[in-house]
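Quick one before lunch.
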Amino acid sequence: MSTKTTRTQDILDRTPSSIALYRLLVPFVIVGLWELLSRWIGPRVLPGPVHTFSALYEGIQSGWVIPNTNVTMQAVVISFLIATVIGGVTGLILGFNKPAYDIVEPFFLSFYSVPKITMYPIFLFIFGVGLNTKVGFATFSSFFPMLIITMGAVRSIDDVYINVGKSLQVSRYQMFRHIVLPYILVQLVVALRLTFNSAFLAVILVELFAARSGLGLVLQHAMGTFNSEEILIVVTVLAVIAFVINIIFYGAQQLLEERWNMTSDEQMGI
Amino acid sequence: MSLTGLSSLPYSKQIRLGRATLLVAILATLELVGRAEWFDQLTYVPLSTMVETAYGLLVSGELTDDIITTIGLVFVSFVSATLVALVIGWFLWRHDKVKQVLDPYLIVLYAMPIFVFYPMFIIVFGLNVFPIVLIAFAMSVTIIIISTANGLAKVPDVLIDVGRSMGLSRREQFRHVIFPAAVPYIFTGLKLGFVYAFIGVIASEFILSNSGLGYQISWYYQQFQTADMYAVLLIVITLAVVVNLGLIRIEDRLHRRT
Amino acid sequence: MAKLEINNVSKTYNANKPNSVEAVRDVSCELDEGEFFSVIGPTGCGKSTLMKMVAGLIEPTEGEITLDGESITGPREDIGVVFQEDSTFPWRSTLENVEFGLEMRGVGKQERRDRAHDILELVGLSGFEDNYPSELSGGMRQRVAIARTLALNPDLMLMDEPFGALDEQTRLILGGELLRICQETNQTTMFITHSITEAAFLSDRVFVMSARPGEIKELVEVDIERPRDESIMTSDRFNEITDDLWEALKSEAQIGFEQSMTVD
Ligand SMILES: Nc1ncnc2c1ncn2[C@@H]1O[C@H](COP(=O)(O)OP(=O)(O)O)[C@@H](O)[C@H]1O
Ligand SMILES: [Mg+2]
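Model of the adenosine-5'-diphosphate complex:
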């Protein structure tokens, strides 16, 4: 009984309402700092938040924000899904095969540190400019976090759980569904988040470098014409999307960690 | 060697053999795909051509300035990110309330496509090295802050009590107990921070700049000098992989102590 | 015929390799129906190895193990195992943990729920059905693991130092409860421990293993009447038995200790 109360107390102590309140204030502080910065640098070079938000509204009204966002996000979502499936399945296979895992792990870890955008020209040479190239490259770059975390998660499964399953003679499917999957779930949520972020960044970089539409292309144009207002609109849209998606994944991760008291893998630094 | 001979080798030797085989297979594929002439010369060149071209570029001194620029920028961004992050990480560790408020934001910031600020920085600061350093700094700093704050917080209470029971001062406590205990965690952050600083510099150079290895790749691409492009790409990849393997080695060693 | 027969069983890990370890050597013994049988020995002597072979999780390099005359070649439905490490699933509540085996065997929801409630009552965990393992103490988690195995009503129950990680008082309390449960269910049990008191308190017979490679060193009969309770611990007979066990174990524990000091 005592454990129950201390635990509830624990959670209360850790997230008292004042902390939740301060957390809500942080975005306002950021917007405030932005305003100050804009006044300091000069609103011509760096338009302030009020100006940017109204320009964003106008941009939505005049119809260039939404279609371009759609183009970008479509590529992000498609590559995210493909990378998740391919990376996840490969990660599971390699994770269950210890020798294979031990052999390939340093290769994937080192390749993770390569600035993959520099390999985009290869994709352009082979496939030309277009949605397929964009998606192909973003899939390629976001495949790695999914793979690395999934295979590491599978390897980290405590033998005793597998032995419990074996001694109960569970089927292969049951072993996967009821033991492996719940065990690696928290880490999979982390993997999904990092995979999404990689796909997101890859698509933006690709659009900045060579694309025919999308928010990255808008950025590229705006950069050429020193249109800082348009840049800030795009940055705001991208930042809000990234923020919302990350908060959702992070919330799910926290919920699982809190409830099961399991932690995610540290390999990728989170 | 016969198969039975292979399986009698100790496991770690078998793995090393496996890795060597895989490496050779990858290199051979890179070579043979070029030789097979599935692609024309403008699309792909064999590995041997890349190596030869890279050697030529390095020896002629054509790339020297770019290499110095890139390495210099990575160094400046990473070192400044480390200094700033260690201080902020330490501060967050000391002030747990602040850390709790900021934790989710740090995680989200780490995940943000920071790079979208590059065009803005160029408008504010002009097309020079400053925006590049700023981007690489921003990409690198968050993970080091997170790992420093978390690493310090993870030091087991019992170790702190040992120090206290021996009458160490606050400063001695930090210097001799807390910091060394947290080093393995902090190092993981430093490793990733370095990787992101490298990626930030190269990506910025690649997207828009006028010098550096990243810039050379995109320049050779635009000039259709495919062999040169692959040569610089090979240099960049080799640099990334070698440094990263070194860092992983140190990291493994540090973690073995914990 | 004995319930469980272990005939000349040996186990060498990584046989024929430079890093081979001979963990168990030529062990033979028999368990009767309803018997509570303990295996005691110094750390690293091969107790867990022996138990995993009986559980069908690993194969002996030599010899044979039979249950009801049938050779054990893999995990079986009629053998239940409680592991040395914490093996409760952190993602399942107490109730869901206890239901796990039944659920995997396709037992209907209502039936397994009722069964789980009964078992939780038996192990004294009523009221904690909805708590997750992270909210329970180590002792309670181990009870959950025991309940999860008991729920399947196995013919033979194997327990590998189930209280090994717990403090002395909790051990004694849980030992007392285990005694009560086993007397109620008349469960055939093979219990592994390194605690002399625990072995003498619970068992009908205690098998003392030598240091690695584990061999039968001695078989000690605990001829104290059942039902037992904590009061037997102060009896002269109990002290004689624990003295015998300690005598048999002492030199082996010394060897085991020296083995454990060699760093590899
Ligand atoms: N999977 C394994 N591979 C190699 N050696 C093992 C393995 N499992 C256990 N051993 C070794 O076998 C010996 C006996 O281990 P174990 O049965 O776990 O001992 P106990 O349970 O009595 O402490 C130990 O020296 C241990 O290091
Ligand atoms: Mg053991």
